[in-house]
Amino acid sequence: MIETLNGLVETVNFKHSTSIKLYDNDEYEDYPPHWHAAIEIIMPTDNLYFLNCAGDDIVLREGDIIIICPGCIHSIKAPEAGKRIIFQPDTTELRFMHEVESLINIMSPYIIVTPEDYPCIYEHAKSLLLEINTIYKENYSFSEVDIFCKLLDFLSCIGKNYVNTRSVDDTLDHSRGDEYFGKFIEICDYLQEHCSEDLSLDDIANRSGFSKFYFSRRFKQFTNVSFYKYVNQKRIAKAESFLTDPSNSVTDVALSCGFPSLSSFIRMFKIIKGCTPTEFRNMYWCGK
Q1: Model-level pTM?
Q2: How does pLDDT run across 243-257, given as a tens digit for each residue?
């Protein structure tokens, strides 16, 4: 499945003259830790599938869907028999859309769509992925356009699910769901852009117009992580790109990405990525 791997980085070889790659995969083959710039959507259609994403061990059942965001280090272990759809579209050109960019940030490093956790959208998401698989195989004129239309529908239903179930949880706030969604999208965009700066919960809560307590609670509902963990995830993602340049020292990377000390950077990098910055750099350059 991995055709071009240099160290940790997979270069996705998209189908000729397209920005998509899809495997209807039945290979009994394990894949080492790696990451790529393309989003990856996997759904087993026969038997289980075993992954480790961002340090978390995951077992996908038949029909479970995992969305692995760009930059997430993951490895895969396949059973001796089984089949799964592995879809890798290049979403770079889609991210000019404000909501697509924000949704990918919110989902990072990965989410798993199951019937239990996403009952309102699961069947629709599953059917869209199966339709994408069929269209890819048929390869007719404008099939890439149709696939990206289905992908946008797929992302849209996940985003709307966040509006309906993640950002609000009571009757009063439900009527203001879109308003709150827009507000937290703005906050997440601001954190993405300014993550290397000295950010405090008090300052961002004031910026949002909410109290510190209310903001903390709503932010965790919206992103599934605490405010400081979210900021650190963005800082580590930024650090990864700096570490690929050997002229940048680990200390310089730490300070450039908003960490007060080298030790705090190394500790947080290992918590989030499962390896130290130096180990990440060595794995990246292995084989280059």
Answers
A1: 0.76
A2: 988 899 999 999 999
